[in-house]
Amino acid sequence: VQLQASGGGLVQAGDSLRLSCAVCGGTFSRYAMGWFRQAPGKEREFVAAISWKVGSTIYADSVKGRYTISRDNTKNTVYLQMRSLKAEDTAVYSCAAKPWVWSTEAREYEYWGQGTLVTVSS
Asked: CA geometry: angle at 27 spanning 63 and 49, to 5°?
């Protein structure tokens, strides 16, 4: 299973950005998908996740109400819509996959994509 994240870039505070993570191999509809991020000098942290069944999602408190995770099982892709971006959202964002149900724990995810850098200027 291979994951390819894209959509990062340099934006200003208050802007929006949408990340995508395309999955190749396996049966995408059976995977829960998660987004994690790692800021410079900080530990990786959970951002959002969605279970195999569309509609079951969870968010970190720091992004709740600003970020939306979604998936399109016909395109084998998961998205992370980010709004009202803040400087503290600057990080490398990575997507990950695990069977069935979401988790907030990175160690439970079996497959990882490379990260995409999001830089928010204040």
From this structure: 10
